[in-house]
Each structure stands twice: as structure tokens, then as C-alpha cells.
Amino acid sequence: MGRIGVIVAKEIREALPATIFFIFLFHMIGLTKDAVLEDYSFTALRSAGATLGALLVAKAILLVDALPISRLSSTSRIYRVIWKTLMYGVVVLVFRFVEELIPFLSKHNSPASAIQAMSAEVSWPLFVILTLWVLGGLFFYCLAAELVRAIGMEKIREVLLSTQQHAQNPDARR
């Protein structure tokens, strides 16, 4: 494998956990949105949009992680989780806004008139609720990523995939 292949493989490995997590989350959000709006036709286009959104968020996470500002948080793990959640949340909020804006851009002549139409037609309470779901998902993603960093992937695999009962060792419970 050439140098470019190694770089691409590394990027895919790093983006895969976030991509899988957000594909699931965005499809659930799409289903929730359709149910609330009583539009029960979750089409292939909407599914592709949710998948593309997950890919964009995963790439945004990689980009934000590469920025020096992502390492400005405290040494406390919970503060790092909160800091990264907020940073990713800003990026996702921009994506969510653009996602809502795109259909209006195709119907209107200028971005200003599209934004004006969007502000009148979008259900802002639903937008806020769905954004809160995404922020909650981001928090759990950041928390899980920090736990994997702290404990190690091998230990996580051992704990989650082990079939052994640890009751034989009474000291393991303490």
C-alpha cells in the first residue's frame, strides 16, 4: 500500500466510530422528525441525507480534533468531554442550520430571501429539540471516546465481549 493508501486507511479507521455512531443517531432523529411532522415516508433521499450528515460530522470531528483549540481544555477528563462536546456542537449546529437552509435556497433567488423564508416556515421548537438530541449524542460520544482513551481499547473489548463471570474473584468487586 502506498503512502496515500496508508493515510486514507488511517483516516477511515479514525472516522469509523464517529460515523457509525452518527449514522445511527441521525437516522433516529430523521425518524423522530418524520413522526412529529406526521410524514411517515422516510425516503431513500432522507436516509442518504442522514448518512451524508453522519459522514460530514465524523469528518468535522477529525478536523476539530486536529485544531490546537481542541487541546485547550483542563486536565480533568469531564472538562475535556464538555469542551469537546461544545466545540463539536458548534460545528453540528452550523450543519443543522445549513441542512434546513438548503431546500429554501433552491426555491428562492438569494440567500437573504431563503433565510427569511426559512425563519418563517421552520418549526423552531422542533429544530431546538432535535439539536438538543444531537448535543446529547455528542456528549455521549465524547464521554465514550474519553473512556476508551483512559481505559484502553483492549480493556473495553475484554469487559464488553468477555463471557467469563468475575464473581470468582471477590477482590474484583472492590
Provide structural commentary:
- By secondary structure, this protein is mostly helical.
- The chain has one domain.
- Helix content is 78%, strand content 0%.
- The chain has six helices and no strands.
- Helix 2 (44-66) packs across helix 3.
- The chain is globular and about 55 Å long.
- The model has no long low-confidence stretch (mean pLDDT 81).
Classify the oligomer: single chain
Helix/strand class: mainly alpha
Number of helices: 6
Ends: how far apart? 48 Å
Number of domains: 1
Helix content: over 70%
SS strand fraction: under 5%
Radius of gyration: 20 Å
Q: Spell the H/E element sequence.
A: HHHHHH
State the shape: globular
What's the pLDDT, averaged over the residues? 81
Number of strands: 0
Major sheet characteristics: none
- Stretches with pLDDT under 50, minimum 5 residues: none
Q: Layout of SSEs?
A:
Elements: H1 3-36, H2 44-66, H3 77-107, H4 111-121, H5 124-151, H6 153-161
Summarize, please.
The protein has about 170 residues and is mostly helical. The protein has helices at about 5-35, 45-65, 75-105, 110-120, 125-150, 155-160. The protein has one domain (about 5-155).
Fill in the keyword field for this structure.
174 residues; mainly alpha; 0% strand; globular
